[in-house]
Amino acid sequence: MVKAIRINSVGGPEVMEYVDVEVGDPGPGEARVRQAACGLNYIDVYFRTGAYPQPLPAGLGMEGAGVVEAVGEGVKHLKPGDRVAYAGRPTGAYAEARVMPASILVKLPESIDFETGAAMMLQGLTVQYLFRRTFPLRGGETILFHAAAGGVGLIACQWARAIGVTMIGTVGSDEKAALAKAHGCTHTINYNTENFVERVKEITGGKGVPVVYDSIGNDTFIGSLDCLSPLGMLVSFGSASGPVPPFGLNELASRGSLFVTRPTLFTHTAKRNDLEDMAADLFRMLESRKIKIDINQRYALKDVAQAHRDLEARKTTGSTILVP
């Protein structure tokens, strides 16, 4: 038996239960992983509240790192003793150990510790697909990135600086603005005291930006469109403030033939070759010290409810991990 978090109903942080579960042997295509750390991400809140439905009872968490204890039939790319990290479905990362699909596990280089591995996979791979695959940045662009002091945001700040991109980042406080700037964000906008659309137009001399990366959703969607230059792209990759409401296509036409896309990490990593290439790119960025993962919050696994409360209250910065 191992300790794990389970939910029997959807709702607030109180629905998460710290319980004993049985972890058996891996079946075909599976691996059993003893986890050293688990990642905490906003997508976990969506599953906990039912915004992203799943059959109940269920586990939570989509990211972790640890050591392979056993592999099932047909698993060729891993063996017991391998150090691994992952970000992907099915949920269930909030656990001391778990049996899971081996296809989403990648080998973790010896140069990267387990806590960093658990904290970086979902957020780091998100920045990788946003910057390399969704709207490929080549350097020299000026971009807008919402929530620049969050886990994804701080990685984006560093990645943008490393490839020669001018990043405008929105934040919720002066303290978060200083944090984002320290990580490479060129311009910061405190959305509680400034109008981000007006500031973006001021910074860009009225031109707007070619791309906006928006994980906020409802509160920022129309403003994000207003920040784009003609033929620009809004990349909506999250909805922390609630889902984007329905809108007419003329909203795009009237602003200059704009594009909108709603990508997910798991579409980009669905093919094994793509996952390995993306992870290798992320690992190179870390090993070259172009980016560093800031783990600014650590919670014991049994204290996951408080971790969720802090995350939803926007009290966290950088990455957060749960320690089994």
From TrEMBL:
Coiled-coil spans in chain: none
SUPFAM superfamilies to which the protein is assigned, alphabetical: GroES-like (SSF50129), NAD(P)-binding Rossmann-fold domains (SSF51735)
Superkingdom of the organism of origin: Bacteria
Cellular component GO terms held in the UniProt record: cytosol
Segments forming domain Enoyl reductase (ER): 11-322
Keywords: NADP, Oxidoreductase
Gene3D superfamilies: Medium-chain alcohol dehydrogenases, catalytic domain (3.90.180.10), NAD(P)-binding Rossmann-like Domain (3.40.50.720)
GO molecular function: mRNA 3'-UTR AU-rich region binding; NADPH binding; quinone reductase (NADPH) activity; zinc ion binding
SMART domains per UniProt: PKS_ER (SM00829)
Name of the protein this chain belongs to: Quinone oxidoreductase
Organism of this sequence: Noviherbaspirillum saxi
